[in-house]
């Protein structure tokens, strides 16, 4: 099962559209995960139409129309992998311990907010993933997203992808 992980798209505030490379990943993915800060409901509609399966949450920049359709925390079991998605996990300092306490029955937690890619494992074995942003790199050298595979009940092949800089 192929996963696409994105967050902090901020459309149309930070970019007019998702990059073509990301849309190609949407088409190839079995599950698309969006960790919030969509900004406009149009992207939610388009991702729902173009994804085989979409799991998403709202972020701090998402208004009432998105909050009416998306949860603050989403949970799913993907071929034996217990996934949770949330927009914010708080400060970098102490993140692993906070997430262990908040998500004890979770294998993988996808989050966003910082636009900073993240891939760590907590003391309890929880995998923490932040795909960065495909549209707003902020202080990062590149816009980014992640892909992964669920294979035999485990997460595998987690890869961070850098997008070409926009001209």
From TrEMBL:
<dbReference type="Pfam" id="PF12850">
    <property type="entry name" value="Metallophos_2"/>
</dbReference>
<protein>
    <recommendedName>
        <fullName>Phosphoesterase</fullName>
        <ecNumber>3.1.4.-</ecNumber>
    </recommendedName>
</protein>
<comment type="similarity">
    <text>Belongs to the metallophosphoesterase superfamily. YfcE family.</text>
</comment>
<dbReference type="InterPro" id="IPR000979">
    <property type="entry name" value="Phosphodiesterase_MJ0936/Vps29"/>
</dbReference>
<feature type="domain" description="Calcineurin-like phosphoesterase">
    <location>
        <begin position="1"/>
        <end position="147"/>
    </location>
</feature>
<dbReference type="InterPro" id="IPR024654">
    <property type="entry name" value="Calcineurin-like_PHP_lpxH"/>
</dbReference>
<dbReference type="InterPro" id="IPR029052">
    <property type="entry name" value="Metallo-depent_PP-like"/>
</dbReference>
<keyword id="KW-0479">Metal-binding</keyword>
């Amino acid at each position: 099962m192929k996963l696409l992980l994105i967050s902090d798209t901020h459309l149309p505030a930070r970019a007019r559209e998702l990059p073509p490379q990301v849309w190609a990943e949407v088409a190839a993915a079995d599950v698309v995960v969006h960790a919030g800060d969509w900004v406009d409901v149009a992207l939610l509609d388009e991702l729902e139409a173009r994804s085989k399966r979409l799991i998403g949450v709202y972020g701090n920049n998402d208004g009432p129309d998105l909050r009416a359709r998306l949860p603050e925390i989403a949970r799913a079991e993907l071929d034996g992998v217990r996934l949770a998605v949330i927009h914010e996990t708080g400060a970098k300092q102490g993140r692993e311990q906070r997430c262990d306490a908040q998500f004890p029955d979770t294998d993988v937690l996808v989050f966003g907010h910082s636009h900073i890619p993240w891939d760590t494992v907590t003391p309890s074995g929880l995998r923490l993933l932040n795909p960065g942003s495909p549209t707003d790199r902020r202080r990062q050298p590149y816009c980014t997203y992640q892909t992964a595979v669920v294979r035999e009940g485990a997460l595998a092949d987690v890869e961070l992808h850098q997008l070409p800089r926009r001209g």
